[in-house]
Task: structure prediction
Amino acid sequence: MDSQELDKRRSIIAHCLSMNALGINQGTSGNISVRHNEGLLITPTSYAYDKLEPEDIVFLQLDGAALGRRAPSSEWRFHCDILRARPDVNAIVHTHPTYCTVLAIMGRPIPAIHYMIAAAGGPEIRCSPYAIFGSQALSNHAVEALVDRKACLLGHHGMIAVGSTLEKAMWLAVEVETLARQYHGCLQIGDPPVLSDGQIADVAAKMAGYGLQD
Result:
């Protein structure tokens, strides 16, 4: 492999370790992919992050054909389908963070309770219907929930954050879990007021270029 591919593989491993260190994932339940050439590099299935070596990261063609010494993540379908559907996306972070997952179990999208929701692309972070992990149905739901968005919840499952870079996708994953925790806290008091679509559009215009830079 060339130095560019090696750097991507190392970055995926570093961000896997970071997911757990940040508390937005547990064990090997999450997965990460990065666009590479005509396909993507993705974490292997059920393999401890602290044992990962660059050679353990799997190369997938966008049709799902795998090349590597390990099997790809069981969620490889939605990684492939999202990258096919979204040329603006180069990295995907999927995790099971506690507060996002609580809301996903309840089937609750995250409304505009804070202006930072604009970072996810709109006035609401959608929650997709449930489908069993690794299925084409789950992939279809995820692609639909991400239309014009950079993050979504997966019903009774977890969350997905996408970005033009892996760093941006990870940054957004942390932001979405923060929003989920804030919304959960608000619900303990009552039904929270939300910002209007127009207010979120104003925030989006003002924050163009805000956040983690390339």
